[in-house]
Design a protein that fits this description.
Length: 252
């Protein structure tokens, strides 16, 4: 709990057997997390077996692989059904440090923000943590274009470390979003669409063999998806098109 608000950490899992327990241990070491929810997307390793052995953890398994975005949809729905007031997503691959959970939770719990990101770019941690140069350059170019089209000033849109208030999650039409990796980008664009401010904290990261990462071809697809999302956002703001992910009747 944080000031009487229930904190639920969600982990969208896929073949995370090698790092899940280590991530879990560090999450619980923060002493403010009430519940962890692991949603497994048809892993081929022992992710589910390990997850079910962890105390204070609820484990859900998709009957079929629904994709990264589809996994997150389940994560957020289940977290709200469990009564979460502050919902924090962290990948179970131990790429992001769980030690920032108290800071991110306090920013939401004190009503300062409804959305907080753990940024790999602030503080220069991306390159220091081993992010490939080509991925770093793509991140910077995409972020620049998105900031222009979305009228925002984020250091990056592509982090998988995010915290949300229940208030915000209840208002986002995330079911209209993609089930693929671009879901992350669409969700942040929706936050901005409804007029909310996105906060960022500097986050050390690690890149290693067991850390999840999409391949080059999927990265290209994701990049074009991000550009399409930002362009759709701008055209919808101008009233030139309509979009299911940016509905007029739900503006903040």
């Amino acid at each position: 709990m944080y000031k009487g608000q229930k904190i639920v950490v969600v982990m969208p899992a896929y073949n995370a057997a090698q790092t899940l327990r280590k991530t879990y241990d560090e999450v619980m070491a923060q002493d403010i997390v009430d519940l962890i929810i692991v949603v497994d997307d048809q892993s081929r390793d022992e992710t589910v077996i390990i997850a079910k052995s962890l105390p204070n953890t609820r484990v859900y398994s998709h009957e079929r692989n629904r994709g990264y975005g589809g996994n997150q949809k389940s994560c957020y729905r289940l977290a709200m059904e469990a009564g979460g007031d502050i919902i924090i997503m962290i990948h179970p691959d131990y790429q992001y440090t769980p030690k920032l959970i108290p800071a991110m939770a306090s920013m939401i719990g004190n009503k300062l923000y409804h959305c907080v990101l753990g940024s790999r770019i602030l503080g220069g941690y991306a390159i220091k943590g081993g992010m490939p140069i080509w991925r770093y350059v793509a991140n910077r170019v995409l972020t620049l274009i998105e900031n222009i089209l979305l009228r925002a000033k984020l250091s990056e849109y592509h982090t998988g470390y995010r915290a949300f208030s229940r208030h915000l999650l209840e208002r986002l039409p995330i079911e209209a979003n993609s089930d693929d990796f671009v879901f992350d980008n669409q969700m942040l664009a929706q936050v901005l669409w409804f007029g909310y401010t996105i906060a960022e904290v500097s986050c050390p990261t690690k890149y290693f063999t067991d850390a999840s990462s999409i391949n080059f071809s999927r990265s290209i697809k994701y990049g074009f998806g991000c550009l399409q999302t930002a362009l759709t956002f701008r055209l919808a703001k101008m009233g030139l098109i309509t979009s299911m992910i940016f509905p007029d009747n739900l503006k903040h």
